[in-house]
Amino acid sequence: SQQGEEDPQALSIQEGENATMNCSYKTSINNLQWYRQNSGRGLVHLILIRSNEREKHSGRLRVTLDTSKKSSSLLITASRAADTASYFCATASIYNQGGKLIFGQGTELSVKP
Amino acid sequence: NAGVTQTPKFQVLKTGQSMTLQCAQDMNHEYMSWYRQDPGMGLRLIHYSVGAGITDQGEVPNGYNVSRSTTEDFPLRLLSAAPSQTSVYFCASSYRAVGATSTDTQYFGPGTRLTVL
Asked: What's the rounded mean pLDDT across residues A70-75?
């Protein structure tokens, strides 16, 4: 079963607006990662947050993690048309010593110029 | 560095045919994995390897075989293709296994789009 579930499945905003995507997961994790996928391309790593961290920033990206609620959010500020892509959260469970990443179903973001 | 490369980019098979999807990385990564991506399903882990000679099953291993004879290569074999295996396949690698003692991120290849008729 999928570890991460994302909400919303699709999001359409205007350039300059902020975009927020949420991810929920089921089991205890070591870290949670966000990836981006442009249409027809492979996934690209954006940011990683450890289980003992609550917030992390990278450029226009802000990620929060609430382990008590088993949820994370990705905020993209001042969005641009080039941010149009699918965004996936992925979790590394503390029970998976083999090193598996489990991905959510993704949020499809469309930023209109 | 070329990163993670996958061949072919596109492939059409008939039901029952076999084929091998190739994956190679030139970053000396220990961990390699194969995912399939289907609409509305996200990425699902097929098989993974934590080093040469070591492989293990992921979420959806049935119908696929893997081997890891070298650090660089991690081919995925479809034994007898079925229409349910129509998907986009991604190979990924990271320096070490992504687990309790590691925070390494994964690097993805460009994908192979497979259609089984």
From this structure: 97
